Amino acid sequence: MNLPTRFSLNNGKHVPAVGLGTFQGDEGNSGVKDAVKLALQLGYRHIDGASAYGNEKEIGEAIRESGIPRHEIFVTSKLAQTWHEPADVRRALEQTLEDLQMDYGNTIQLLSIMRDVL
């Protein structure tokens, strides 16, 4: 069985089928930075983070230090529940981009914890 290496989006862009998630890093997030750098060296091209994880600065540094052109890496971030009000979205996205030290993210998702799922 052949598994896909990427998925096509409706805008013609592609998202890698496998990515590195960065939830629950260590104190100071140096382990997250090292993990992202290693993943990129091993061929990962999708990095999944979130402002709520507190490690977007380290993710951005790792991507920049990898030497891999930014356009070759698909970066996902998430908008935490505290930023879902329409008036807060722009500020939250600007903060994420500043923390990542990037001009753009490839996808921004709404992060929502479902506490009472059946």
Automatic annotation (TrEMBL):
<dbReference type="InterPro" id="IPR018170">
    <property type="entry name" value="Aldo/ket_reductase_CS"/>
</dbReference>
<dbReference type="InterPro" id="IPR023210">
    <property type="entry name" value="NADP_OxRdtase_dom"/>
</dbReference>
<dbReference type="InterPro" id="IPR036812">
    <property type="entry name" value="NAD(P)_OxRdtase_dom_sf"/>
</dbReference>
<protein>
    <submittedName>
        <fullName>Aldo-keto reductase</fullName>
    </submittedName>
</protein>
<dbReference type="InterPro" id="IPR020471">
    <property type="entry name" value="AKR"/>
</dbReference>
<keyword id="KW-0560">Oxidoreductase</keyword>
<dbReference type="Pfam" id="PF00248">
    <property type="entry name" value="Aldo_ket_red"/>
</dbReference>
<comment type="similarity">
    <text>Belongs to the aldo/keto reductase family.</text>
</comment>
<feature type="domain" description="NADP-dependent oxidoreductase">
    <location>
        <begin position="19"/>
        <end position="109"/>
    </location>
</feature>
<dbReference type="GO" id="GO:0016616">
    <property type="term" value="F:oxidoreductase activity, acting on the CH-OH group of donors, NAD or NADP as acceptor"/>
</dbReference>
<keyword id="KW-0521">NADP</keyword>
